[in-house]
Amino acid sequence: MAARKNKIQLTDAWKEKIKASVISGRLYDHLQGLNEMTPTQIKAADILLKKLVPDLNRSEHTGEGGGPLVVEVVRFGKN
Fold first, then answer.
1. Which comes out higher in pLDDT, residue 21 or 9?
2. Dist CA 10 CA 19 (whole Å)
3. What own/partner pairs with CB < 8 Å and gap ≥ 24 does 45-50 have?
4. What is the average per-residue pLDDT within 59-64?
5. What is the mean pLDDT of residues 48-65?
6. What residues does 62 pair with on adjacent strands?
7. Would the pTM count as exceeding 0.70?
8. For residue 25, is it left (φ>0), alpha (ψ between -120 and 50) or beta?
9. For residue 35, how many C-alpha atoms fall within 13 Å in the half-sphere facing its CB?
10. Residue 61 to residue 19: CA distance in whole angstroms
């Protein structure tokens, strides 16, 4: 098989996303009982995820004109 002419270069952002998905996958498997993790491994995974994935609690959302964001909940189906 011939070598590729256009080699794929992963950016640092993609590498971080891959790392985060691997770590979160291991934690999910642990929650499902598919693999065992020690408390130290769980804490280490937590610390790494906090470094790789932005904390959603710190994000600010504003509505039109800089005011508070208003969310309307719409339900479909039987009442």
1. 21
2. 12
3. 48/19, 48/23, 49/20, 49/23, 49/24
4. 65
5. 70
6. 68
7. no
8. alpha
9. 13
10. 27
Residue 41 token pair: 């491994």
Q: Tokens in use for 51?
A: 């470094």
pLDDT per position as a tens digit, 16-55: 888 888 999 999 999 999 999 999 999 999 888 888 776 6
* Dihedral over Cα of 8, 22, 56, 73: its sign: positive
Q: In terms of Cα–Cα distance, which of 59, 47, 7 is closest to 23?
A: 47
Phi, psi at 62, each rounded to 5°:
-125, 150
Distance CA 58, CA 70 (A): 18
* 3-state class (DSSP) for residue 62: strand
Q: Tokens 């009982």 label which residue? A: 33
Q: Which of 20, 28, 25 is nearest to 55 (CA)?
A: 20
- Measured CA to CA, the distance from residue 3 to residue 38 in angstroms comes to 43
